[in-house]
Amino acid sequence: MSIDKAPAPAGGTPAPVDAPAAAAGAVTAVDPRLLVREQGFGGYISEFKRKIRAGDLGSIPVIVGLIIICVVFQSLNSAFLSAGNLSDISVAMVGTGMIAVGIVFVLLLGEIDLSVGSVSGVAGAIVAVMSVTHGVNEWLAVLAAIVSGAVIGAVHGFFFARIGAPAFAVTLAGLLFWLGFMLQLLGDNGTINIDRDGVVGKMTSYYFSDVAVAYGVALAAVVVYFATSFFENRRRDAAGVPSRPLSETVARTVVLAIVAFAAAFTFNQSKGLPLALLIFLIVLVATDFVLRRTTYGRKIFALGGSVEASRRAGINVTMVRISVYSIAGGFAAIGGLFLASKVAAANQGAGTGDLLMNAIAAAVIGGTSLFGGRGRTWNALLGVMVITSIQYGLALEGIATPVVYMITGGVLLLTVVIDSITRQTQKTAGRA
């Protein structure tokens, strides 16, 4: 195949060929986000349809699911959406939610960690043994528990990333080993009570009773969101890249304000803003920033997309993998502390039962892909809200535990099916 060129001038560089007919027939690719800005409200409708056709559902399924759950259970029992019940749900979901945050990091790699339940139990046992049995300062015991969880996760990551053992097998072995280690720490008694007025005890029992705190946090969240969005859009405009119009930023801020102040009003009708929920929200904001705004976060997404491509791009695959498992272990330990705080004790049942499955299910139900490369830590919040709401709603109706397991499993299966169909649709559309 040959390409005709115009005669080269004396300098040796081919002269450009004027082909107006070909230029007229050429199609210029336009970023869909630019079309949204130009077409106004109609552009957003077109963009929404384009995303649906491409399988980019985002958080739509889980939000619709939450609405359905609220409608169904409220129709069955008017106490479901009461301030007291919603406050209890918000506290109960934090322990599992913290573990799910670490699971999100692992799932972004396209891997799994089956040890997080046992690691959470070890963290609770470490705090109880150090602070209660041996009289160590409780803050120091909490720090030791969290660091221990991170180190345990790093050990798992080392065997997976450096030695090459399958993550499933490594973390399954960790599940058994650390469960036995926890039982050994607790000793023959099997249960160590924790001071409800101590550091760990207040993690789930403390509420900001002053109404100004809840409203102040809501206001701060709205102001920070608008400011960061506004200046981010200005920065993108200055760089000549697509950005959200001011009207969209204002609309999103208004929606956030409605949700935030409604939540603050609800909490103030009960005991006030729960300390546990406030810590959880701060963690979600911080981890979302790490994943979406830092080089490290981009490396995690890159690994979830293609390990070989990431390696060729110069990413230290081994270190990123080890660090992600260390993060998962650290958050498992933090979640274990919240779970120990909820029952004011470290016992032999900690980290067992349905905890592991609920943490993984929360991440997946919230929208994190099992195939890697897609998800946000906010998915952990949405997912754990679904699971905890189902549990509390069924408890209000006196439904037996076996039925709770079956319904939760059905929801998880439905989510996985949606995730698989979405991925296939994205492949067809050339987006995966």
- What's the gyration radius in Å? 25 Å
Assembly status: single chain
Low-confidence region ranges: none
Overall mean pLDDT stands at 85
- The arrangement of helices and strands along the chain is HHHHHHHHEHEHHEHHHHEHHH
Distance between the termini: 33 Å
Helix content: over 70%
Q: Major sheet: size, sense and barrel closure?
A: 2 strands, antiparallel
Please indicate the percent range of residues in DSSP E strands (runs of 2 or more): under 5%
Overall 3D shape: globular
Q: Which fold name is given in CATH as the topology? A: ABC transporter involved in vitamin B12 uptake, BtuC
How many β-strand stretches? 4
Label the structural class: mainly alpha
Physical arrangement of strands within the biggest beta sheet: 1-4
Helices, by number, come to: 18
Q: Give the domain tally.
A: 1
The assigned CATH architecture is Orthogonal Bundle
Core attributes:
single chain, 432 residues, ABC transporter involved in vitamin B12 uptake, BtuC, 4 strands, two-stranded antiparallel sheet, 18 helices, 2% strand, mainly alpha
Note down, in words, how this protein is organized.
By secondary structure, this protein is mainly alpha-helical. Helix content is 72%, strand content 2%. The chain has a single domain (57-209, 271-428), classed as ABC transporter involved in vitamin B12 uptake, BtuC (Orthogonal Bundle). It has helices at 20-25, 32-39, 41-53, 60-76, 83-108, 116-133, 138-163, 167-186, 202-205, 211-239, 246-268, 275-293, 295-305, 307-312, 317-343, 355-365, 378-396, 401-428, and strands at residues 191-193, 207-208, 273-274, 345-347. A two-stranded antiparallel ribbon has the order 1-4. Strands 2-3 form a two-stranded antiparallel ribbon. The model has no long low-confidence stretch (mean pLDDT 85).
